[in-house]
Amino acid sequence: MRRCIRDIAPARFPAIVVLWMILALAHAVAAQAADTAPPPDLGVTLADESNKAEIVWEWDPYYTDVSANIPLTSKPIPTITSDSEAVIYRDLIEGSIIPRYMLLEASVYPMPVLGTYLKRRAPDFYKQGKINGSNINIFESLTAGFQEPWAVSAFFGNIARLVRPGETRTGTNKGYTGYLFSAGAKHIKNNVLVDDIWHELEWKIKGKRDYPDEKINWSFRLGGKFNNNPEITDVIYLGIYRSNLDHRAPILHWFKNSSFDLKAQFSQKSGKIVREDFVVGKKFPMEKQSYTPTLDVGLVWESPDEYSGALRDRSSNSLTLLFRPSIEF
Question: What is the pLDDT, as a whole number, of residue 74?
Fold first, then answer.
């Protein structure tokens, strides 16, 4: 294979350029929207009186991003008022036929990037992470689960504000349903950066409800990933994710204060499963604290058919332990 291993620095430039473009575009759209007030729609519940573009930041050691929500029509964002997740999912899907919003996002994955940096720049220190008598490397366990260091994305679909019945606090809780196109220029294999221009197309439904006493995040997606590098298998994938933080529930509750993440990837040519990520997590809410320690553990199963040519460096399946301690704010 043309196994080109490079510094992480060349991968930063495109993301920074695209991020600058996103901010510039969002600023221009927001300025235009400020001069033109959308007509009222009496058939829709409004969360506010405007339909302007907005910038949203999310910070996390494993997934950090900045996004710009840009309306494509003059219709305001509708509100779904319900405490039932089933009702929220149903209403989001029903309103997803005609896209009315565009969301541009630039994301970077700090811990996976750190893993590639350590293996490249500090190989002796990286090897010290191996647990004696096993094939487990603590650095691989801490950074596993991401196959790219960064990505840029464009979402086309619908957005709805999510409100609990009786809730008076104005928040930014939203649900999204539609199509997501993502692209990048690097692939991560065993904490080694490999040259690959890749792109993904997926349909997804995701959302976030963030209240003082409870936080819920979910994402359900179906898509395909296409790689310019012929030695990386093109796949179709299915992903299911749900996370709940409830300060009112016991810490050891089996459903609340927990998370679940499953992603299965199938070869586009053979239909055989080539990779599966399975992660479960537990959250430990602390009384009168604004932060919550979390711990995710799981497994990454990989078939040798995930790669071909020089990248196919084994003939049997592999299993990697995944370990992610973190803090949720």
Answer: 84
